[in-house]
From TrEMBL:
Gene3D superfamilies to which the protein is assigned, alphabetical: Butyryl-CoA Dehydrogenase, subunit A, domain 2
Natural source organism: Dermatophilus congolensis
InterPro entries assigned to the protein according to its UniProt record, in alphabetical order: Acyl-CoA_Oxase/DH_mid-dom_sf (IPR046373), AcylCoA_DH/oxidase_NM_dom_sf (IPR009100)
Annotated protein name in UniProt: Uncharacterized proteins, LmbE homologs
SUPFAM superfamilies associated with the record: Acyl-CoA dehydrogenase NM domain-like
GO molecular function terms listed in the Swiss-Prot or TrEMBL record: oxidoreductase activity, acting on the CH-CH group of donors
Length: 343
């Protein structure tokens, strides 16, 4: 299955590693090992973006949990690449380090940075910290003493407690998301205050997540072609194939356009925000409609008898809720009203 027809599929070694992780006893740690091997592709976001999207989409088509594990590691590395070089020796980073990005803001929770003789430290709580119990390092947002916000690199070791007891997901069940509590944790500033939100590539990572949704939806759509090889497809099945093809082709074109705009410098600032909102909404709608069309055409059997398909649908259903549906549509509308030149 070619996800993007103009881009080669991932190397066979990557495909084999993803499949082994997906069917192995330690999917998260095996996926993080793959992530470290794929670290060099983080440099392609912004100059060969479709190749970056293609890697993530292909991995998602093989297994969504593996893709969901790899993506934040690569996202963190792209952020570090975009920032001015910094010395990370204070938090013991090496080529085996695995990264997350914890930037959620939840009322009643927050990290606060404080100066110390040996450099900044952070204390407080941060919610929605996916895989905090497996990663070695993270990029986190924290409030500075002057009430600006900065991005900091930390090691997820001393001074940190992890609480995931409320997690009850039935999709992406291996992706534990936790609340972390930090107490005087050494932290290294990444960029100046407010840089994380203002950097040119802030919205690109969100489009990369949409590429993962697209890859998983492509895999779900394959069920329409293989559901019952002993029976001619009826009009409902044929209509479902047609609907999903149209939806997924629209999603593919949206991602290809986004990649071109990113590579040519037309996806920064307000234009990048509009592009991300638009692209993510197109892909999310295509993925949701694919799940619906496949379900209507194939009935309950694949969801109850095909473990791979059932897990893929459950995983993608959870992952798609990173798109905020009508709230994102309203945000897009607001930006469009306030912008005279849209991308």
């Amino acid at each position: 299955m070619r996800i993007f027809p103009t881009v080669p599929a991932p190397a066979p070694t990557t495909v084999d590693a993803v499949l082994a992780a997906a069917h192995g006893p330690d999917i998260i740690n095996d996926s993080l090992t793959i992530a470290t091997h794929l670290s060099p592709i983080a440099n392609t976001l912004g100059n060969d973006t479709l190749a970056y999207f293609n890697q993530l989409a292909h991995i998602a088509a093989l297994d969504l949990t593996v893709a969901r594990t790899i993506e934040p590691h690569l996202d963190a590395l792209t952020i570090l690449t975009q920032a001015n070089p910094v010395d990370l020796s204070r938090i013991t980073v090496d080529h085996n380090s695995t990264w997350g990005v914890f930037a959620a803001n939840t009322p009643g929770h927050g990290l606060h940075a404080h100066p110390s003789p040996h450099g900044p430290t952070i204390s407080g709580t941060k919610t929605w910290c996916s895989l905090a119990d497996h990663l070695t390092h993270a990029l986190v947002t924290a409030t500075n003493p002057d009430n600006t916000t900065s991005l900091y690199a930390i090691a997820l070791t001393d001074g940190i407690t992890i609480d995931s007891h409320d997690w009850a997901a039935r999709g992406l069940t291996h992706i534990t998301t936790s609340t972390i509590t930090c107490t005087d944790v050494p932290a290294i500033p990444i960029g100046p205050p407010n840089w994380y939100l203002e950097r040119p590539g802030f919205t690109w990572g969100g489009i990369a997540v949409a590429a993962i949704w697209y890859g998983a939806a492509r895999a779900i759509a394959q069920q329409l072609y293989h559901h019952n090889p002993h029976r001619e497809p009826d009009q409902i099945a044929l209509a479902a194939i047609g609907h999903t093809d149209i939806e997924l082709e629209n999603a593919r074109h949206a991602l290809e356009i986004a990649a071109t705009l990113i590579d040519t410098g037309h996806a920064t600032g307000k234009h990048g925000t509009i592009l991300a909102l638009r692209t993510r909404s197109i892909v999310a709608a295509a993925a949701e409609h694919t799940i619906t069309h496949v379900g209507h055409a194939t009935g309950p059997a694949p969801l109850t008898l095909n473990k791979t398909h059932a897990r893929r649908v459950a995983d993608l259903t959870v992952y798609l809720r990173q798109h905020h549906a009508q709230r994102d549509h309203a945000t897009l509308g607001k930006h469009l009203l306030n912008t005279t030149n849209t991308p």
